[in-house]
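User: For this week's homework, look closely at the record that follows, marking any run of repeated tokens, and judge whether sequence predicts the tokens.
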Amino acid sequence: MEYICKTMGSSELGGIFEIPPSLRNRKVQVIILPAEDNVPGEQKPQKRPLGFAKGAEIPDSFFEPLSEEELQLWGL
């Protein structure tokens, strides 16, 4: 990942964004990093549907609380 790191006077940044009073009239370090890892022309992989469970339905019983015995087997 490319980035830019530059030390400069805080007064040079005043026109870009508000400088906190504690940093005014001091040397500051500015680091510019990409907001995303997208490279122009490069596409993110598309999400694919899960194929192993095609047509499977989740029964309502799946959402019921586990029995005490089952919880103990899981160590909970």
About this structure: Strands lie at 4-9, 27-32. The CA atoms of residues 8 and 27 lie 5 Å apart. The longest helix spans residues 68-73.
